[in-house]
Each structure stands twice: as C-alpha cells, then as structure tokens.
Amino acid sequence: MTGPAVDIVIPVYNGEDSITACLASVFDQDCTGFELGRVIVVDDGSTDDTSEVVRQAYGDQARLVRLDESQGRAAARNTGAAQGRGELIVFIDADCRFDGAACLKALVGQLSSGADAAFGRVEFRGQGFWDAYMGRLNRERERQIARGDSLVAVSANLAVRRDTFSRLGGFDTAFRGYGFEDRDLAARLTATGARIAYAPDSVVIHRAPSSLASIARKMRESGATTADIFATRHPQAYAAMPYSRVDTRLHPWLRPCALLLRPALPLFLRLGQRLIDSGRVPYGIKAWALRSVSALAFMLGTAEQNERRC
C-alpha cells in the first residue's frame, strides 16, 4: 500500500528566478509511505518568462496552469487545488524551497495522525540579518503555538486534507491583496473544530527580501486591502494582533499622524536600509528599524483605505 496521494500546489507570479529551485526541492522529497500526486504550478498572470521556464525545466512532470491576469494568491491556490486529485494538498510558495528530503513526510505524518491541517517553519537560512530576524519570529510563533494559537499557520508551508479544504470552499478569494488569506483559512478551520498541527521538521527556505522597500510595499498593500477584510470577519482575532495597534480605522487619532508621516516614508526607508546593511549596527537596532518602518507602512495603508471610503 502506497498511502495517501499528495498533490503539491505552487502559486507563482513573476517567479522565473526561483520556481525551478522550488520544483527541484519538491521532486527531491522522500515519498516513502505516501504517493506524490500532481505537482501543479499556477502562473498567476506573470509578465516574465515563468511559464516558459517551467515548461523547459520540467515539461510534463509539472502540471502548468496559466491565468490570463493576476487574480491573487488565494485564487491561484484554489485553481491549483482544483486541478489535483490527491487526498492531501500541500501548498508551498514559488520563492521557497524545501530544506531536505523529509519535509513532506513531516507534514503528511501530522495528517496521518489525525490532524486536518498542518504547517511547518519558514526560514531565511544563512542570510545574515534576515536569518536572525526570521529566527526571532519563529521563536515567537512557537510560543504562540504552545499557547494554542493556530492562526499563525503559514500558507508557504501548509498541508490540508482535500475534503476539509473543499468543505471550507478553499482560500477566500476576496483576499486579492497581500496577506491575511492564510490567517483567514486558519480561523475558519478552527471555527469548524478542525485540528491544525505544527510540523517543525518541515522547513522551507524563503528567499530573503530584496530590500526594506519591498517589505514596506507589501505591508502598505496589506493595510490598504486585506487587513480590513480580516478585521471585519474575525474582529477578535485581529484585535489580538500587533497590526491592530496601528490601524487608523480602529484608532482614528492616528489619522493625522499618517497624514504628517506619509511624505517622510521614503526618508525612513533610506535610513532603515542603511541601518540594516551596516555591519556595525547591532541586531536590535536593525530589528527596531524594520518593525518601525513596517508599522508605518501598514498604518499608511489603513489610512489610504479609509480615505477611499470617505
């Protein structure tokens, strides 16, 4: 008996430089005890050569689905899941790769032990400050897990039973912007009584951010789009998150601050990047700069979303 079939779903947008490393790590997995089903790459309307790179490198080994225009990561993942037939679905992001051959076994092992979903770790291995910072985030995440908080599940390294995923309707495609679609899925899983397990031996290595500006763009987009959806649907969970502390929709007194600080964001980005790049600045100051600029960008996003409403 080969065990359950496991489909792999990889959403990708403009990932020509990273998708082959991701796929190589998938095909290198030790599948003892289960069957590797379909490996599905969903090109979410890329404007680079992502699809051609996949075809050239893997041909029929990977099932390629190309969307004519970007629909967001939630929709891309759902499209990929619909192409599979396996009892279990594993999601990994295109800018990640499995660290070692036993990662899938760790995820599948949790589901075989009765969990409805399982998630692993995300690391920036050997990448200086980013490695140290992600290590700190992982330690905090593990403390939250120990307290019973399953909303820290990450879709970059996530396994779920197909029947459970189907009953929920998959990821909510209202989350078209950056972030919160994985937390929303975890919240809905938890609300149904599903068990979400942590698989620390399943590790994916994420590409380090290219710059502080790239993180700020994502945080600003999240504040302007997906955060409000999550806050509306899961107000108690959102209120417990650090994001809520700088959300101008919840704290109107922050709106004048956002107006005053908006023109200064480019300056803060330059200063923050210099601190992070410096070999003489202590880790604590670099981490403070990253958190401060990220919080400011998120706050500006919430203010912009609120302005559109008015």
Description:
This protein is of the alpha/beta class and 310 residues long. It has two domains: 5-206, Alpha-Beta Complex (Spore Coat Polysaccharide Biosynthesis Protein SpsA, Chain A), CATH 3.90.550; 212-309, no CATH class. It is built from 13 helices and eight strands. It has helices at residues 19-27, 50-58, 73-82, 103-112, 129-146, 162-168, 181-191, 212-224, 226-233, 235-239, 255-261, 265-277, 283-309; strands at residues 5-12, 35-44, 62-67, 88-92, 96-98, 117-123, 157-161, 196-206. The chain has an eight-stranded mixed beta sheet, sandwiched between helices. The mean pLDDT is 94.
Give a short overview.
By secondary structure, the protein is α/β, with parallel strands linked by helices. It has helices at 19-27, 50-58, 73-82, 103-112, 129-146, 162-168, 181-191, 212-224, 226-233, 235-239, 255-261, 265-277, 283-309; strands spanning 5-12, 35-44, 62-67, 88-92, 96-98, 117-123, 157-161, 196-206. Helix content is 47%, strand content 18%.
Architecture per CATH nomenclature, i.e. the level-2 architecture of the largest domain: Alpha-Beta Complex
Neighbour order of strands in the largest sheet: 3-2-1-4-7-6-8-5
The CATH first-level class of the largest domain comes to: Alpha Beta
Secondary-structure-based class equals alpha/beta
Per CATH, the superfamily of the largest domain is Spore Coat Polysaccharide Biosynthesis Protein SpsA, Chain A
Low-pLDDT parts are: none
Total count of strands: 8
